[in-house]
């Protein structure tokens, strides 16, 4: 029987712990919420095997013309990268 561990969770929090000195410069609670949103999005990309930088670049390039009723297609687990 294998022992349960939380190595995955500890590794996920490592980046947060390493960067916490920088977080005081988010400015306010809204800045912190935006930072948390980005960290969550980057983590979700990694869990889905997607390069976060490529994902953000793609999303920012297609979002201005994207229909609002299809925004769920841009989530990391649904996104299909296309050449523009």
Structural class call reads: mainly alpha
Instruction: List how many beta strands DSSP finds.
Output: 0
User: Order of helices and strands, N to C?
Assistant: HHH
Total helices: the number is 3
Protein name: IS66 family transposase
Domain Transposase IS66 central: 3-33
Domain Transposase IS66 C-terminal: 41-77
Short description:
This is IS66 family transposase. With 84 residues, the protein is mostly helical. Helices cover 56% and strands 0% of the residues.
Please explain how this structure is put together:
The protein has 84 residues and is mainly α. It contains three helices and no strands.
Helix and strand topology:
Blueprint (H helix, E strand, L loop, with lengths): L6 H17 L5 H19 L4 H11 L22
InterPro entries: IS66_C, Transposase-related, Transposase_IS66_central
Protein name: IS66 family transposase
Organism: Escherichia coli
Features:
single chain, 84 residues, mainly alpha, 3 helices, 56% helix, Transposase_IS66_central, IS66_C, IS66 family transposase, Transposase-related
């Amino acid at each position: 029987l294998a022992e349960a561990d939380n190595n995955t969770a500890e590794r996920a929090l490592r980046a947060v712990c390493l960067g916490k000195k920088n977080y005081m410069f988010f400015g306010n609670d809204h800045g912190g919420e935006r930072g948390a949103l980005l960290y969550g999005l980057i983590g979700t990309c990694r869990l889905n095997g997607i390069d976060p930088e490529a994902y953000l670049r793609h999303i920012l390039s297609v979002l201005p013309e994207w229909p609002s009723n299809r925004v769920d297609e841009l989530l990391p687990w649904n996104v299909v990268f296309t050449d523009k």
